[in-house]
Amino acid sequence: MDALEKDAQKLQLLSPSVCVEVGSGSGVVSAFLASIVGPSALYICTDVNPEAAQCTKETASCNRVSLQPVVTDLVGSRGIEAAWAGGKRGREVTDRFLPLVSQLLSADGLFYLIAVAENDPEEIIRSLGNYGLTGESCLSTRARNERLSVLRFHRKGT
Amino acid sequence: MKLLTHNMLMSHVKGVTKGYPLLIKATEVKVNEVEFNPQFVSRMIPKVEWSALVKAAEELGHRQDLPAELLADYEKNEEFLKKVHKVLLEVEVIEGCLQCPESGREFPITKGIPNMLLNEDEV
Question: Which of A12, A17, A48, A71 should be substituted to probe chain B, the one whose Cβ sees the most B Cβ atoms within 10 Å?
Answer without folding.
Answer: A71
